[in-house]
Every structure is written in structure tokens, then in C-alpha cells.
Design goal:
mainly alpha
Length: about 160
């Protein structure tokens, strides 16, 4: 993996950029279609591993919050938030995975794989089904972002006769 693809991969993993930032970087720094495709695949691969990383982090945080060393006020607040989320999830149980896919797939600020995994965790959704929904959302976001950037480049070329 070259440095260009490595940067795209890292941008795909980072919570602040995810596939949106990775795709913009790839299109901004690549001149031929081969490097664009390689960069997009690297960014996509980085973003596809996010739920696995996020679930491990959330499991560690859960263990820490439930520890006997955690102050009672913090533990109580954590458990109240989890219980509230799990109670609310019962109302969306059937549609939760489609909604999760769309939440992750529509490329808006704070609607990526990291946030989607957090939402699935707080709502207590099934982990395997949630990961599948999040991965589907990541693929959808990749398609939307890539199409939007490609269209934008074509429009700019037409406007400025490049």
C-alpha cells in the first residue's frame, strides 16, 4: 500500500472524516482513474472496519462504567442513559436496521459509522445485524459521495470549459 492509499485508509477510519473526507482527499490528490479507484477502495476498507473497532471501544467503556471503581453518580447516569435508549428501541425494533442503514448512508455531519455504532449500542440492537446495517450504510454513503464529487467535477469542467 502506497502513502496515498494509506492516507485514504486512515481518513476512512477517523471519526471526523470517514468516507466523506477520504473520498474528497482521493479526488483532490489523484490525477488518473486507477489511483482514484485504489484510494476509494482504501478509504472504503478503512470505513468498513469502524464498527468492529467502535464495538470494542464501547465494550471497554461499558466495563469501565460498571466497575466498582467508577463513582456511583457516573455509573448511575450511564445506566440511566442505557436503559432509556433500550426502552426507546422497542418502538423501532422492526425498522431499526433499515433506519440505521439510512442514518449511516446519508452523508450528513455526524451520521457516519462511528455514530451509527454508538446508536446501535445504546439502543441495544443485535450486534451482527447492526454491523450489517452499518456496512450497508457505509456502501451507500460511498456511492453517494463518489457520485456527488464526480458530478461536481464534471459541472465545474463544463462551467469553466476545462
Amino acid at each position: 500500500m502506497h502513502s496515498h492509499e494509506l492516507v485514504a485508509f486512515v481518513l476512512g477510519v477517523l471519526p471526523i472524516s470517514e468516507i466523506r473526507g477520504s473520498a474528497v482527499y482521493v479526488f483532490a490528490t489523484s490525477s488518473n482513474i486507477f489511483t482514484v479507484i485504489l484510494g476509494l477502495l482504501a478509504g472504503l476498507a478503512g470505513n468498513l472496519i469502524v464498527p468492529f473497532i467502535a464495538y470494542k471501544i464501547l465494550d471497554l467503556l461499558d466495563y469501565a462504567f460498571r466497575s466498582k471503581y467508577t463513582p456511583r453518580v457516573v455509573k448511575r447516569a450511564y445506566l440511566i442513559i442505557l436503559e432509556h435508549g433500550r426502552r426507546r428501541s422497542r418502538s423501532v425494533q422492526g425498522k431499526g436496521y433499515i433506519a440505521l442503514s439510512l442514518f449511516v448512508g446519508i452523508p450528513l455531519p455526524v451520521t457516519g459509522a462511528w455514530t451509527g455504532t454508538l446508536v446501535a449500542y445504546v439502543l441495544g440492537l443485535d450486534r451482527r445485524k447492526s454491523i450489517l446495517a452499518i456496512e450497508t450504510g457505509v456502501l451507500l454513503a460511498t456511492i453517494i459521495v463518489t457520485a456527488t464529487i464526480s458530478l461536481g467535477i464534471q459541472v465545474l469542467k463544463q462551467l469553466f470549459l476545462l
